[in-house]
Design a protein that fits this description.
Number of strands: 9
CATH architecture of the largest domain: 3-Layer(aba) Sandwich
Bound molecules: adenosine-5'-diphosphate
Helix content: 25-40%
Number of domains: 2
Oligomer: single chain
C-alpha cells in the first residue's frame, strides 16, 4: 500500500530550542502528492495529481465527466484507497457534502444536523448550543422541526451543509453539491457558502461543472484532463472576498471564465 496518511510528520520549526525528536503536527489543509488511482478492473482514473488546499483557500476542480474528480474527493474522504502517492489531511476534522443531501428521512432537520456530533460522542449540552448556532448560520431557523421531505432542494442542501459544519471541519469537500438545483437557488447558495467560508476559514475542495460557479467561489480553479485525469491548468482567482452577485457581470470575471473555458475545451482532446 503506497498511500498515507492521517497526519503528516513535519520537521519542527526552528525556534532555537531543540525540538522533540518525533514531534508530529497534524496538517490543517489538504495535500495530494503525486496521487494516482487505478481501480481493480484496470481503469486508470487519476494520474499523478499534486494539489494543495491550504486553510482559507477555496480550490475548485473542473474537468470532463469521468476524469476522476469524484475519485479524488473519495480518496480524500477515505472512501477509496489511492494506488500510489500520498494524501495528507486532518482526517479527524473533515466535512463533506455530496450532490445528494443524504438526510435521514425519519429525523427532523434538527436531528439530522445533530447526527455527526452525536456519532462523535459529543455531550448533549455542548451539542445543543452548537446545533443552534449552526442552524442560525445556514438560515434554517424556523425549519428545525420539519422533516427532509417537507423542505425544498435548497433547504435540504443547507441542512446537509449544517450537519458537517457542526463539527467545524478544517477541510471541507464538496462534490457538486448544487448541481441539481435551479440557477437562482444555486446562486443564492453560492453566496451563502462563501459567507460560511469566510466565517469558518476551512480549506475547501469543490467540484463543479459550472465555470461561473468555479470562478465565483474560488481562490483557485484547477482544470483536469480527460481520463486518466491529471492537472492541466491552475488559475488564481484575484477577486477579493466578500464577493457579490454583481461580480458575475464584470469584465474581469468574464475574461477569466473565458480562459478557464478555453483550458477546459483543450482538456477534452
Ligand atoms: P468524475 O467525477 O470526474 O466524473 P469519477 O471520479 O466518478 O469521475 O470516475 C473516474 C473514472 O473512474 C470513470 O471512468 C469511472 O467510470 C471510473 N470509476 C469510478 N469508480 C470506479 C470503480 N469503483 N471501479 C472502476 N472504475 C471506477
Amino acid at each position: 500500500m503506497m498511500s498515507e496518511s492521517e497526519t503528516a510528520t513535519r520537521p519542527a520549526a526552528s525556534t532555537g530550542a531543540s525540538p522533540p525528536p518525533e514531534a508530529t503536527v497534524a496538517p490543517k489543509g489538504l495535500h495530494f502528492d503525486h496521487v494516482s488511482m487505478v481501480f481493480e478492473d484496470g481503469t486508470h482514473a487519476v494520474d499523478d495529481v499534486t494539489l494543495e488546499v491550504k486553510p482559507a483557500e477555496f480550490v475548485t476542480i473542473v474537468g470532463p465527466s469521468g476524469c476522476g474528480k469524484s475519485t479524488l474527493l473519495r480518496i480524500a474522504a477515505g472512501l477509496e484507497q489511492n494506488s500510489t502517492g500520498r494524501v495528507t489531511l486532518p482526517r479527524e476534522s473533515l466535512g463533506y457534502v455530496f450532490q445528494d443531501a443524504t438526510l435521514l428521512p425519519w429525523r427532523t432537520v434538527r436531528k439530522n444536523i445533530e447526527l455527526l456530533a452525536e456519532l462523535k460522542g459529543m455531550r448533549k449540552a455542548q451539542r445543543d448550543g452548537l446545533v443552534d448556532a449552526t442552524i442560525e448560520l445556514v438560515g434554517l431557523r424556523g425549519f428545525e422541526d420539519k422533516y427532509p421531505k417537507q423542505l425544498s432542494g435548497g433547504m435540504r442542501m443547507r441542512a446537509s451543509l449544517a450537519r458537517s459544519l457542526v463539527l467545524d471541519p478544517q477541510v471541507f469537500l464538496f462534490d457538486e453539491p448544487f448541481g441539481a438545483l435551479d440557477e437562482i437557488t444555486r446562486e443564492r447558495l453560492n453566496a451563502e457558502l462563501l459567507r460560511l467560508f469566510q466565517h469558518q476559514e476551512f480549506a475547501a475542495l469543490f467540484i463543479t461543472h459550472s465555470i461561473a460557479e468555479a470562478v465565483f467561489l474560488s481562490t483557485k480553479v484547477v482544470v483536469m484532463s480527460a481520463r486518466p485525469g491529471h492537472v492541466v491548468s491552475v488559475f488564481d482567482v484575484p477577486f477579493p472576498y466578500p464577493r457579490t452577485h454583481d461580480l458575475r457581470y464584470e469584465a474581469d470575471f468574464a475574461a477569466l471564465s473565458g480562459e478557464v473555458s478555453h483550458a477546459l475545451r483543450g482538456s477534452h482532446q
